[in-house]
Amino acid sequence: MLPKLVITDIDGVWTDGGMYYSAEGDIMKRFSVKDGWGVIFLRELGIPVAIMTRENSQLVQKRADKLKISRCYLHVGDKLTKAKEVCEEMGITLADVAFIGDDLNDIHLLRAVGFSASPCNTPDYVKREVNYVTAAHGGFGAFREFVEKILADNSMLETVLQKFM
């Protein structure tokens, strides 16, 4: 079954988990453009994406704005509680949600959703909690691979890809 909502962590999933600082103290993050295609594929099917991150980063908000992701939740300490709130607003349950996360603060939500995943460079104790582990590292297309897995499992991947070929 296709999820009715896809939730994603950012650092360690869309990024390599590193924080880069300039000499002036500016913080930078490296995002893979490959992951943007995952958002586009889901949008083609009318499946919303929500970002949930513990960080309070305007860089994440800028990436969300560029990809037209309206549900961008920054500085979330308890992702499970926030996800329940979002589900209630949408009239869905956690069983209708797919989530990809990569670390300890994601485990409770990873355990609660209908389909869960983590990048391959996630700690083993997190990987044991998920339904799928991507071959891609966080920051190198893990989110897109997660989306393509969902679509392939529901016989929708080729249909979506044909719209762009």
TrEMBL record:
Necessary cofactors: Mg(2+)
First-tier enzyme category under EC: hydrolase
EC code: 3.1.3.45
Presence of the UniProt keyword Iron in the record: no
UniProt keywords, alphabetically: Hydrolase, Lipopolysaccharide biosynthesis, Magnesium, Metal-binding
GO MF annotations in UniProt: 3-deoxy-manno-octulosonate-8-phosphatase activity; metal ion binding; N-acylneuraminate cytidylyltransferase activity
Record family assignment: Belongs to the KdsC family.
Name of protein: 3-deoxy-D-manno-octulosonate 8-phosphate phosphatase KdsC
Species of provenance: Bacteroides oleiciplenus
Lineage: Bacteria, Pseudomonadati, Bacteroidota, Bacteroidia, Bacteroidales
